[in-house]
Amino acid sequence: MTEGHLLRISVNGRDHAQSVPPNLSLLDFLRDHLGLTGSKECCAVGECGACTVTVNGEIVNACLMLAVEADGADVVTAEAEDDAELKLVQDAFLETGSIQCGFCIPGMLMSARQLLREGQCDETAVREGLSGNLCRCGGYNRMFEAMRRAAQLRDAETEKSDPSPKMVGASAVRSGGRERADGSQKFLADIEIGNVAHLKLVTLPVARARIDAIDVDDAVGMPGVLDIVTAAELPQPIPRFGPVYRDRPVLADGETRFHGEPVAVVAAETKEAAESAAARVRVAYTELSAVCSIDDALAPDAPLVQEPQIRAGDPHARSNILNQRQTAWGTIEGADADLVVEGTYTFPMVTHFAIEPHGFIVDAQPDRLKIWSPVQHPFLLQKIMAELFDLPLSQVHVIAPDPGGAFGGKQNPKFEPLVALVSRRIGRPCRLVLTLEETFQAVRRTATRMRMRTGFTSSGDLVFQDIEADYLIGAYGDIAERVMAKGSYLGCGPYRTPNARINARAILSNTTPATAFRGFGTPQMSWAYESQMDKAARQLGIDGLQIRLRNLARKGDDVVKGDFPADGHWEQSLLKAADLLDWESELPPGRGRGIAVAIKAGATTGLSNSTIRLLADGSIFVYAGTSDMGQGARTIFAQLVADAFAAPMDRISVVMGDTSSVPFDLQTSASRSTVFMGNAISRACEDLHRQVAEMVADIHNVEVDSVVISNGNVHLPSGPLPIHEFIKAELGRWGGELIGTGRMRKPNVKDHPLGGTPAFFEFNCTAFEVSVDRDTGEIEICKHVTVGDVGKALNPLQVEMQDEGAAIMGLGHSIMEHLVLGEHGEIRNLGALDYRIPTTKDMPGSLKTGIVENEDGPGPYGSKGVSEGAILCTAPALAAAVAQATGAEICDLPLTPERVWRALNPPRPQPQV
Ligand code: FES
Predict the structure, then answer these.
(1) Would the CB of 630 count as within 6 Å of ligand 1?
(2) What is the pTM of this model?
(3) pLDDT tens-digit profile of 55-70?
(4) Do the Cβ atoms of 38 and 59 come closer than 8 Å?
(5) Do 601 and 735 form a contact (C-beta atoms < 8 A)?
C-alpha cells in the first residue's frame, strides 16, 4: 500500500486538504478526487493540452505534474466561477463559433485566458500561445477571431451584441456550447457509475502472432484485481461481431491479426490496479508473417488474414480480397483521345485522432444490457449487441453521450461486446477508457493506391477515365468495404465523363481495422482524379481553373451514367473560390496556385424519426436519435423548431443519445442529419401545426382548413400569435401537451451499387496559393480557400466552422499525417508525441470559406449536407500549387518537407565506370 502525502491546495478559490499517493497526477487528483472533470485526458504526455490548467498563474499540463508538486499552490481550471478573463474568453469562443465537439475547449480556454491576461491577443501571439492545445475539429481560425473579440470585450469599448438571433439562416450560437466552455459537459470518461470496475487490455507488440500461452499467475493475486479474461474464459466459439461482416472476435482467439488486438483483459477496482496487473500478464507467442501492404496482401503466397471459414460461401474467402466492385459505362478501348495521362497515386493510413479517446461502460445483467458509449450510431450498437447477446432490442439500452470528436471513427461498435462479457462475468458495471495510443490501434482511414489512365481531347475535354483503386483495409471488415464502394463509385469526380471503367478492391491486411473517416473514401479518389486533371492541364497548356470549368458537370448532367445527376450549379463554387483566391491576379514570384473540386455522395438510404412535445407552458422537447459530435446538429434542430413555433431558442430542449427515449434514427454519418433528421423534425412540426389548427377550430368554431399558420404564428380572429404562446394560453400549466411525429425515409433501390441513389451531393472547391522553401522542402500556405454548395446555410456560422475544421483536417493528411509501420507491422508513431496533427502554428496565412446557396437541396429550406466538403480535395489542390511553384509533381501523400525536398532534388545519375 502506497503511503499517502497530505496535499494542501487551492482549486478555483476553494481550499482542499487530502491525503494522496505520491504518484498521483494533478489531472487525476482534479478529476477523480475533486470531481472536476472539465480538465480532459487525451494524450497523457503533455502534447495535446486538453488538461491545461494554471498553477500559481503559470500554464501547466495537469497530466505531467504530480499532485504533490502542487502542494500549497493556487490552481485554476475551466470550471472557475467569477473569473473575469475566463468568462470573457468563454463568451468570445461561443460567439465566434469556436466550439465544435468541445473536448479540447476547457484546456484551450485556459491557454486563451492566459493570453488575454498577458494582453497577447493578436494573431501572431495566438498562433504561438495556443499551439500547445490541439483541436481536431480544427476550429483555430475561429479562435483567432475569438481572441480579437475577447480583447475588445475586455477593453469594454465594444458593446456586446446579442449573440443569438435565433432564426433559421442566422448564426445562432451553439446549443450546448456554454457547457463545453465551462467544463460541465459530461463526456464518457466524466460519467460516474457506482461500483464500476476498471478494465485494461493486454496486447502484443507485433502485427500477427500465434498465442502459445497466457500466464496470469503474477497478475491475478495483485491488490484490487477482480478478474483476468482470455479467449478461453469466453463462450465458445468466440463471439464475433461487425457492422457488415461478423468477423471480429471479442478477444484474439489463438492468433492476433493486427498490432493492438487484445489477447486478454484485466478487471480491477481502480484503473491503476488494472494497468499494473495488465503489465504482469505474460503472453508467450510466436510471431507469424504478416501482410501490411497491398502488394504483400495480394502476393500469390500471401498468408490469409482471415481464415476462409469466417466468410464461408464468399467467393473471395480464400484470398485477402474482402470485396471488389466495378462501375463502368461507355467504352475505354475504343475511346479516341489526343492525350492520355497516366499516374499511380498513394494515400497513406491516417488516424482519426479525436481528442476524446474511445471509451465504453457497460452494466450487463443476465437479461439486459445498459451501455454508455459515445457512438455515432446508437441504434446500430443496440442491434448488434441484441443479436450478440440474444436479447430483445427493448432490453438493450444505449446511452450515447455526445462524442468529443468522432469523424467516422466512432460509428461502429469496438469494445462494447468485450466490456459487456466481462461485466456479466464479474456482476458489476465495467468501464474501459482507451489511451490515445490504444485509440490509434482501434480505428484508421483506409490507405489507397490508385492507378489512373485518363484520356483528353487536345482542347482539354475528358474522353475517358480508366481507374484501378485498391483500398488497404485492416484485419476485419468493419465498414471499410463500403468506404471502398462509395469512394470508388464517384471515382471520376464531378465531371462529365463519356467513358469510364472503375475497378476497386477492398484488401484485408494485418493492420488496424479501417473504418469510416470524414469523406468516406472520397479524399483518396479525388487525390488521384484531380492530380490527373492537373497533369493534363499542364501538358495541354490549359489553366487549372479553365480545364475544370470545361469538364464540370452542369446541373442535371450525369456524373455516373444513368444515376442521380449533378444537383447544383457547381461552377458557381468554382468561380467563387477563384475569386476568393484572386486566381486571375499576377502570381507573386516563387509562388504557385492550385485549385481542385470533388463530390461525395450523401446518404443513400435510411430512416430518421423525430418526436416533438409541445408542453403546456409553451416550452418544447425535441427528440432526435442524431449524435451531436461537434457538427452542431442540436443547434440546427432547435433553430428549425424555434421558427416553426416562433419560440425563443432557450425554450427548446433537444434530447439525443438514449435509445430508450428517442425514436429510431439510422445513423449520424454521411452528412445526413440536416437533411434526414431535419426533414423528420420539420414534418413533426407540421404534424403539430395540424393539431394546433384543430384546437383553434374547436375553440373558435371554425373549419380546420380555414386556420392559417405561418412563420410559427397561428392567425386568430384577434390577430397572429406565436404558437408557443397560444399553447401556453390554451393548455395552461396542467392542460396536457401536444405530441407531433415526423420521419424521413429513403428506401433501398434494388441492385443499385450503393443500395440507393444519393440524397444529395456534397460539392466542394478548394484552392491554394503557396510558396515552397527549396532548401528544406517546407510548404508555406499563403492562402487557403474552400467553397461549398450547401443549398441553404441554416446556420452560416456553423457551416463556416465545419468547413474550416474539415479544411484543417484535410491539411493534416496533405502535409504531415501518416501512420508509420515497423518491421513487425507495429505502428511506430502511436500517440501525440510522434504523430502530428495541425496546430495553430500550421494554420495558413489566410483561410477563407465561401458558401453557395441556391436552396436546391432536399433538406429543410433547400439545405444539403455539409461538414465533409472541405476535406474532399485539399490534397490535390495543394499539390497543384506546389507543382506550379516548383515544377515538382508528387504522387504520394503526405507532402512532407522531406518528400517535397526529394522531389526537388532527385538523385543524380551515377557516372558510368
Ligand atoms: Fe476542439 Fe473538438 S472542438 S477537438
Answers:
(1) yes
(2) 0.95
(3) 999 999 999 999 999 9
(4) no
(5) no
